[in-house]
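Table 4 source record.
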Amino acid sequence: MPVKVVMPALEMAQETGKLVSWLKKQGQPVAKGEPLLEIETDKAVMEIEAPGDGVLSAVKAQPGDEIAVGKTIAWLLAPGEAVPAEEAPSMSGRHMSARPEAAVAAAAPQAAAQTAAAALKISPKARRLAKEQGVDLGKVRGTGPGGEILGTDILAFAKSGGAAAQPAPAAAAAAAGGELESLTSTAKLMAERTTKSWTSVPHFFLVREVEAGALLAARERVLPTIEKLRGVRPTHTDLLVALVARVLARHPRMNASWAEGAIRLNKEINIGIAMAVEDAVVATVIRQADKTELAEIAVQRRDMAERARAGRLHAGDITGATFTISNLGMYNVDAFNAIISPPQAAILAVGRIAERVVPVEGKPGIRPMMTLTLSSDHRVIDGARAAQFLDELGEAIRRADKSLA
């Protein structure tokens, strides 16, 4: 039976993917699960496995094409099979959501307005955001290639209360003594997503200082054994993943998601670890972290970090996180507020471990301390729930040498 190869959706709200390369040539046999192609999203370049067995045939997309999610880009055929007749012709290149003229004509009551809208170049995300924000597309000035209306244009228009987004002229930048730096598609999409999260998710923040002596001791205790047996040096982040996952198991609402106006209690605890890569930040995922041994967490984190730096993350590496940890302690950051990655309901920002003067049994003492900042979505989590989670997490870190025994 012929098997379709389509542009997959690997991330929330993904609408297009860029074909980087085919790993097989047309006419070559392919086995199910074998690497077939590489695609680029706003987070990384990822290998996509073949969805079935067959000979790669009828390839309809070439490297560099940006293709709408769900579009057929090739077929896998058994000997003697032919490509089935498709319901609609497949399109490669960037997908524009202008409606066919026949469809506009069929909608007679709104023909004039819809014909004008159809003539505009509008990204699928921009059209969706316009509907959500109640924005009249005819009043928005596009800043994309050829005047295309992008998601950022809709958000800027809505935030301004109706003033169309204006592209910043290169001449104005030059007059100010500066130059315009073009963003990569990855950076643009990341900017859109963080802007949407910050402007649409009701964030609130809780801060807790925690004594980290036991965390340091726990790492020193387990490091020699894990390094000898598994060939990896566990980091403070690895230990935090294990501790956070265990505490989340007792606070399921912190592991929940906001989905279509309702709260989804996720069945698995999948911890995302924020990592910096070129032009972006990715969150690689440790699945079922509450059931995963510390040594395995360290191995998975290391392997995904290597693939992230090489731009070769797999689809499963970055999808399905239910809670994220962002640790900037290695950059000597004391504390910061992190932006939630929807539909997750929370993210934990971790600062560096540094010696500070603190009260110890009523007297000044020096202890290794760290600052945790919890960002929460108020639609899913109230202040009391978040405070209880952060308090229990702080105690787990304070007793980490015993908690991770």
